[in-house]
Amino acid sequence: MQLRLDALEPHLAKGLASLYVVYGDEHLLVQEACDRIRACARAAGYTDRSVFTVERGFDWSSLLGASQSMSLFGDRQLVELRIPSGKPGKDGGEALRALASSAAGNQDVLTMITLPRLDAATQKGAWFTALMDAGVALKVDPIERAALPAWVGQRLAQQQQRVAPGDEGRRALQFIAERVEGNLLAAHQEIQKLGLLYPAGALSLEQVQDAVLNVARYDVFKLNEAMLTGDVSRLTRMLDGLRGEGEALVLVLWAVVEEVRMLLRVKRGVAAGKPLPMLLRENRVWGPRERLVGPALSRINEVALEKGLALAAKLDRQVKGLSGGAGARSDHRNDPPPDPWDGLFELAMTVARASDTPSSPKPPRPPMRASSSQRAV
């Protein structure tokens, strides 16, 4: 049975299954889900606990033996299996299928398996399908940026706190979300800190700004979201954050250029009369990004994208130290800025900026984000 994370608590209130599979890359949420299952297991008498971690040369027979044996003291036991790679291999797959077939028949053993995020092919594999059919598969999805303010509000409510009503409260939640994006564990710690610093009740924007540190960690592959939505403020923070974290400029340039190329291909395809859904599939655009491409195309013209690719070619030469070499242009008016990160920002803005304001000035960029050890003032 497949279960959503928000359905775990109602499920546990009805009773425990004999087998749980918890998988996902959001470590905080995975840990919390496992903690809730462990707590319910202890309350139900599963007091004997065995933990196995799959590494090279792992003995799968030891796992099967533990899952089929009785405790020496007659206690029910919790068997935890951790597969950090998400790849059990052939022998492991067979062992997991055997484990799944025997799980329902042994009510004295509760098995909990933790895995990282699994791709679609792995989720269709025989061993995973067997586990899901025999027990409960709990998929832990990451908290998307758009849902982060609401998540922060829920976490504050759990410690009897809330933001001020109205616009001030919305700004406070956005402020927290901006400073903890991509770092959910640190977000959890910052929210707990608010609970230690201030009493239960409403939090003002000033209190939030004084307490919450900038602990955001940006993923280069999330840049496309800020570009497609035209969120210039977030785009600026992400680029400055990636630069401050020492991310390779070549990788960031590649990610931005790939997005510009994808948009140009789709834009030309739509102009040629092809359906947008078909073009998105051809260009491997799925998930939340799929919903953002259509609105972005409506505000971006083909000429701007072509100019963006021309700028990208110059940036590529600049990053590789080839600027000014043989064949360099004598007219430098269209050359990228001396700092390639500034040029990268201009390239990303060809997508983020609306096409009806091609000559609008570049928005001022905030200073490099503060270290996580510095307090916001």
CATH architecture verdict of the largest domain: 3-Layer(aba) Sandwich
Strand content: 5-15%
Order of helices and strands: EHEHEHEHEHHEHEHHEHHHHHHHH
**What is the third-level CATH name, the topology of the largest domain?**
Rossmann fold
Give the rounded overall mean pLDDT. Answer: 85
Q: What name goes with the CATH superfamily of the largest domain?
A: P-loop containing nucleotide triphosphate hydrolases
Question: How would a crystallographer describe the biggest sheet?
Answer: 6 strands, parallel
| Helix residue percentage | 40-55%
* CA-atom Rg in angstroms: 26 Å
Number of domains: 3
DSSP E strands, number: 8
**Oligomerization state:** single chain
